[in-house]
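Homework help board

Subject: predicted structure for assignment chain

Our instructor gave us this sequence and asked us to write out the predicted structure in token form, then describe one feature. I got the tokens but I'm not sure how to describe them. Can anyone check?
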Amino acid sequence: MSGLVEGRAAVVTGAAQGIGLAIATTLHEHGASVVIADRDSDRAEQAAKELGSERVLALGCDVTDEASMERAVHTAAEEFGGLDIHVNNAGITRDASLRKMGVDDFDAVMTVHLRGTWLGVRAASAVMREAGRGSIVNMSSLSGKAGNPGQTNYSAAKAGVVGLTKAAAKELAHKNVRVNAIQPGLIRTAMTEAMPQDVFAQNEAAIPMKRAGEASEVAGAALFLASDLASYMTGSVLEVGGGRLM
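My token output:
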């Protein structure tokens, strides 16, 4: 199967590695031109080189900065002739217990995940409204559904992404701009594989499917939401977690 987003233009934030790179790669494989936007511009350039296509562009982007986010969106519109898909994926963690977490750690996570997503939705939707079409995909997490100990900042931010998604979906539906969210569970990435082995195994055992997910499986959900297969879906939250916390 190919060509689900043939001829469309996409921006994916935090796309130089992990889930973001898997999403950018999958969109590209299905025909989209993609801006790989990441704070690490060198790594973004390397990722773009590996995809090896004129339809891929690397761009340094700080999602917490209004001008930087708008530049990513306008670069896609100028280079590729429009913006059809925007994926707000960039994120960080600053885990600690409630007692030990500092205000700076709370603010950093909230700013990247929540303000970053809001800035992305606002910038992308401004272009999409004018075109009368578009799909925005926001990355939440099962942590935002059920909460994780040691992640009061991350869980709060990811729950906020769901509220933001639904509010924006209601505002933009009449312009044929769809806004949906994905809640991944335990996904095998460099970040999760850095967890202590026993903790990873314990988390994996709690999943009904008895395995961690792959970044490509999250990318499949993003591709679906970006494509016309999801043309009558907005304000939805797709769980990609192997049945965990269902």
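Reply (TA_rk): Your tokens look well-formed. For the description, you could write something like this. The beta strands are 9-13, 33-38, 56-60, 85-88, 134-139, 177-184, 187-188, 213-214, 237-240. That's the kind of observation they're looking for.
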